Amino acid sequence: MNYAALWIPGFAAAAAARDLDPRGRDPVRAGSADLGAEVEAQRMLAAAAFALSPRVEITAPDCCTVDLQGADPARAEAEMRRQARELPRLGLPVRIGAGDTPLLARYAARRAEPVLIVRESAEFLRDLPLDFAEPDAAQRGILLAWGIRTLGELAALPKSGVGERLGPAGAALWDRAHGESPRVLRLTEPARTFGAAWNYEPPVESIEPLLFKLRRYAERVALELRSAGWVAEALALTLLLEDETDYRREFRLAEPGADVASWLRVMQTHLETVRLAERVAGVRLVATPARPGQSQEGLFDTSLVDPAAFWENLARLAALVGEGRVGTPSWVDSHAPDAFVLEEPAAAVPPAEAAPLHPPRGGVLRRFRPAWPVRVICEGGQPMALSGALQGDIRARAGPRVLEGDWWRPREQWAVETWEVELATGGLYQLSRDSAGWWIEGTLD
Amino acid sequence: MSDPIAFAAMRSLLAARPSRPPRSGGAIATGVAGIDAALGGGLPRGRVTELISAAAGSGGELVFASLLAGTRQARMRVALVDAADGFAPKSFRPDLLRHLLWVRARSLAEAMACADVLVRDGNYGVLVLDVRGIPARALRQQPNGIWHRLRLAAEQHPAAVLVQSSAAVVRSAPWRLVLREPAALAALRRPRAERAAALAPELERGQGGGIEARMA
């Protein structure tokens, strides 16, 4: 399960339906031209996708693809199911599919009710109708004439044969019947600002249409905030009046949050007391974002600002680079030159120890892993020149420093001598020599 | 269908809003006087700074050591995404590592994906993405959009982002400094702090003045 797709069936109709006042008293079309309806629906879909992962592609107006690589599968699945429950409550029916490739995820979304995770690709594709792979009319006609009606039947044909008869487009169709291979997503950016603006045509004079649209747009803004890990600490509401003046009001939220009901309570209470001389032609709503719990900074400033994100991201990183390759480095009880372990980071950073009595000296090594083999020309037991991975005369040298360990274990004993060298052409390096030969261990600063 | 005029109106309305969420402003001192002075106080939060170590031994790792020491005193978390897996823990006192998260990537693509996650985390004061040791060709093959994405993400979060490289790779970095001259071997006998204080980076991109003035 490397990718997820979020898909809105009947996108245009669903978007428009969400934008109609169900009470029918004032069919508030999204201002000028439904900039609202479809763009809003798409932004909601994208916001829901960002709740799954920061790596999101807007594949089509009705579909977002999410790169789940590195995510905890159980947690990703739980989040998909939560979004599948949440979006319909906000007026947007959504289907979510997951699979090993972006295309498989999209196929799964089209079959989902409302969530479908494909674990066995071949089995899933076998009975899918041919139309899932979107053949053109000519291809469809030919394939039906061959008796091919499912992706499984098409995939069972040899690709070369399909390519010979239907051309490159046929070969591409065959690939789609196999669910294609993973591809690089064209990533989009999460919302950078949190707000909405819309117009009324004609302008409105009662509070109901105002509140209806306010709820719709606020729901999207809140979803974007939550997906980005923010809450709102203030809301700025601007009513654009028919005479081109405006009425502005900022609401400081007693408790920062992303709960639309509490936002609306605050705004409605105020709007009900407002009397305007002109009708409202447009509205602008802007949320001022804040980190949850940010107000406690300073008191607990060495603890985690966002513990959930911290531990979740650690798990994601471990999945990306592999277990044991992410953590806080710590020395181990060994003199071996590159001995360390990676530990789980502390929940709170402890106070620093007192500065050492003697300030640290010596080079700071940046390692080559693995070390580079090199040939060293020596005179009088001292390295004088290098050839191989690095070449040049050695202008200055310091060493050797001999390290050895585990000498009491015949099979595990080791010994190495290290040198610090400066090349005539410039550059500081650490060399080492062991029983296998000479190595460049890294650069020194 | 969307009305282009309405779309333009919406854009202008959106443009009138704050350009980014509020974040902790200011800078995080690296402890290297030459760098902090060039940047007007240190690594700017919410921004990408590129530090180029043009030669082996020119001081990039010394800067990181100094940054680790300063942030350790402040008990500020540091994340290191190490694209070439070159960090050497034994070069540092154990206590200087206790606030560090080290990600040992196996490829540049992995490193970029990890940086993308960490820059949005919100728990780190500094994110260091070290691409030294990655072949220049691999770096050139990265779509420029990846760095742009990192910059945009950085602008939304409070961490300072430092990209350590061997040659300029972050075209969109607002600040770029270059350490050109490799040190002499004899210099390694001097205390690290003294050597760090003597580093003289060239400011290749960025203007003089304080951070806040330049952000305005």
Count of individual beta strands of chain A? 17
- The pLDDT mean of chain A sits at 86
Structural class of chain A: alpha+beta
Secondary structure: helix percent of chain B: 25-40%
Strand content bin of chain A = 25-35%
- The CATH class of the largest domain in chain A is identified as Alpha Beta
- Backbone structural class of chain B: alpha/beta
Record the strand order, biggest sheet of chain A: 12-13-14-15-16-17
CATH class of chain B: Alpha Beta
Within CATH, the superfamily of chain B carries the name: P-loop containing nucleotide triphosphate hydrolases
Label the CATH architecture of the largest domain in chain A: 2-Layer Sandwich
Count the DSSP helices of chain B: 8
Briefly characterize the structure:
The complex is a heterodimer of chains A (445) and B (216). Chain A has helices at residues 11-18, 31-50, 73-89, 102-111, 121-126, 137-145, 151-156, 159-177, 207-227, 260-271, 307-321; strands at 3-7, 56-60, 63-67, 95-99, 115-117, 195-204, 231-241, 246-257, 280-290, 326-331, 340-343, 365-379, 382-388, 392-405, 414-423, 428-434, 437-444.
Structural descriptors:
heterodimer; A: 445 residues; alpha+beta; Alpha-Beta Plaits; Dna Ligase, domain 1; six-stranded antiparallel β-barrel; 11 helices; 17 strands; B: 216 residues; alpha/beta; Rossmann fold; seven-stranded mixed beta sheet; two-stranded antiparallel ribbon; 8 helices; disordered C terminus
